[in-house]
Design brief:
The chain crosses the membrane at residues 20-40, 60-83, 89-108. By secondary structure, this protein is mainly α. The chain has one domain (8-102). The protein contains 5 helices and no strands. It has helices spanning 8-12, 22-48, 54-67, 69-83, 85-104.
């Protein structure tokens, strides 16, 4: 995620005149990188998730990822109005990098297998 969100800095660095061409270039590279990231992370999730948990895993990930998009849209629009588009693009870049570093520094990075569930207390009764 740290590598794939890096092209957002190109869009945020656009300036007046010919520099405005950096905006679509940066976003185009960022969206292409996002597609590559999504294919890789979905393939990884499907390879480590047991078949009986696949539906729950996909539902949880979609709820978290797609469920936050409206919040980001509202927040981005409000910030773009209040502080301007360029500072909002910089905040978006910083936020995506902060999220990437959060995952990079978490214990999830070292997990290779889904832990087996602990046996239920009290037997089957």
């Amino acid at each position: 995620m740290l590598v794939f969100s890096a092209p957002q800095v190109i869009a945020a660095a656009a300036w007046r005149g010919w520099g405005v061409l950096l905006l679509p270039l940066g976003w185009g590279i960022a969206y292409f990188s996002g597609m590559v990231y999504n294919v890789a992370q979905l393939s990884y999730r499907q390879s480590v998730t047991p078949p009986e948990l696949m539906g729950r895993m996909n539902a949880a990930v979609r709820w978290v990822v797609w469920g936050t998009l409206p919040i980001g849209g509202i927040l981005g629009g409000a910030l773009g109005t209040l502080i301007g588009v360029r500072p909002t693009l910089w905040l978006a870049f910083i936020g995506s990098w902060a999220a990437g570093w959060f995952v990079f520094c978490s214990p999830l990075r070292h997990m290779r297998d889904v832990p087996a569930p602990a046996p239920a207390a009290g037997g089957t009764g």
